[in-house]
Amino acid sequence: MPTITSRSPVRRFLSVALIVVAGLAASCVAWANRELLITFGILFGTALLDVLLFFFMPNCLSCYRCGARYTGDGVASDADDPADGGHQFGAFDLETHEKHRQLVARTKQLSSDPTRP
Q1: Most buried among 27, 38, 44, 55, using CB within 10 Å?
Q2: Residue 68 phi/psi, 5° resolution?
Q3: Rg (Cα) of the chain, in Å, rounded?
Q4: Which domain holds residue 47?
């Protein structure tokens, strides 16, 4: 089972901050001034910017076990075809991520348990 996945390095924090700060704050000001078209223009514009960030940011490799992220030229490009001698890493798998997260949690719990020899 592979422990490395290819994923987009755009963090959820950046996307949420973009939508909340730029989108909602600016659109609330426009909404308060009764500018309906500007309000929806701001909301759709920030959503479009978020989508563009997602599609144009290069992928990175992420380790399920330790959480390390590897970025750089050719680390996780879409052109990595196993037939050409490259590596093809799958998309993020929540089941594998959860398995490794629970393994780390159990290990910490067992190592901090004073009743265990």
Answers
A1: 27
A2: -65, 145
A3: 21
A4: 4-112
- pLDDT, residue 49, reads 86
Please give the tally of structural domains in the chain. 1
Tokens at 71, concatenated:
């970025």
Chain-centroid distance, C-alpha 95: 16
Q: pLDDT digits over 37-66, tens only?
A: 998 898 888 889 888 877 777 777 777 777
For residue 51, being part of any structural domain is answered with yes
Q: At residue 95, does pLDDT exceed 80?
A: yes
- Distance (Å, rounded) from C-alpha 21 to C-alpha 12? 14
Rounded CA-CA distance 75/114 in Å is: 43
User: Per the domain annotation, does 17 fall within a domain?
Assistant: yes
Q: Cβ contacts of residue 24 below 8 Å, gap of 6+?
A: 43
